[in-house]
Amino acid sequence: MQELSIERSIVTAGADPVRVLSVFATRGYASAREATQAIFGLINELLGLRICVLTRIDLEANTLTVLEASDRAGLGIVSGMMLPADEMPCACVVRKAVALREFDLEAHPAFRLLPACTRLGLRSYIGVPLRRSDGTIWGTLAATDTRTFETTEAHLQTLTVLARLAVLEFEGEEQRATLAGRAKVLGDRLAMVEALEEERLCAARVQAVLEAAVTVSHEVNNPLTVLQLRLGRLMSSLSPGTEATEHLEVAMEAARQISQVTMRLRNVVRLVSTHYLSGDTQMLDLGASLEHDAFGPEQEVARSIPA
Question: Most buried residue, 27, 74, 83, 201, by most Cβ within 10 Å?
């Protein structure tokens, strides 16, 4: 209903390009495609031509691509169609960079021989170049029909204004896509920086734990070595199987486990916390903080950091 209201407003404006621009500019469009379809509706209301296309033309490759289309004549012209550019008058518009209007293509000595025009039975034609903000021309906004329609210079001026509006919509969409792409790249880079910073902090924390572990190992192992030597001498002086020997064996096993823990501490590669007993106090989960599970109280430590 809103688009129909806009079309009626344009008709009331008398095809004045300035008034067309002011009326069209009051409506915001969700996409360039939506804006183009609205433009096609205006062209049909103003000129009566039933076929409207917005094309991209590559003269070097001789290709014409229909980016958007409105085919109220039922000729099967749809978005995405491709055909040789030199089979349509649109190529002439781009090549000469000028607007073109023909009352009857069949009466034109060159256009009546164009294969696409003959195949589709096109008669009246009006088209203007799509000129980017940098001055380059990349296609056309055109309208045509299988019947003849009289078009005027005022219609050509209005079509030129609408073409400029279409270009602005497409350029705005391209800019938004570019900004979105840049924002994604920036977001990816920021995520990478955050990940690297987290790795740095984690490495710093692990290094601090390792330094503490080396200190603990040094401070514990020195008296622990003396303790183990003394226990060994005591055991060797006693007869096997006695109660005293059994107590010494338990003590030696406890000393060995203490030594094993200090060696495992030196192999921490990440910090994994766990709850101490049932309270809120946290402690290092030594098993989960190692590179793998091979280091345990019952395993020989194959790798360690020198104290």
Answer: 83
pLDDT at 16: 55
Query: Are the beta carbons of 17 and 103 closer than 8 angstroms?
Result: no
Candidate from 51-60, 249-258, 265-274 with smallest mean pLDDT: 265-274
Q: How confident is the model at residue 66 (pLDDT cuts 50, 70, 90)?
A: very high
How many angstroms separate the CA atoms of 304 and 306, rounded? 6
Q: Please check whether residue 90 is in contact with residue 140, taking contact to mean a CB–CB distance below 8 angstroms.
A: yes
Contact 52, 70 (CB under 8 A): yes
Reduced to 3 states (helix: H, G, I; strand: E, B; else coil), residue 253 is helix
Retrieve residue 194's tokens: 């955050």
Alpha helices in 102-152 (DSSP H): 115-120
Identify the structural domains of the chain with CATH numbers, from first to last. Answer: 2-174 (3.30.450.40), 184-289 (1.10.287)
Phi, psi of 205 (to 5 degrees): -65, -40
pTM assigned to the model: 0.60
DSSP per-residue codes, 43-110: HHHHH--SEEEEEEEETTTTEEEEEEEEETT-S---TT-EEEGGGSTHHHHHHHTS-EEES-GGGSTT
Strand order in the sheet with 82-84: 82-84, 63-71, 51-58, 137-144, 125-131, 100-102
Does residue 292 have a pLDDT over 80? no
Phi, psi of 138 (to 5 degrees): -125, 0
In the numeric block, which tokens belong to residue 162?
């609408």
The size of the chain, in residues, is: 307
User: What's the rounded Cα separation, in Å, for the pair 49 and 150?
Assistant: 10
Element containing residue 289 per DSSP (H, E): helix 286-289
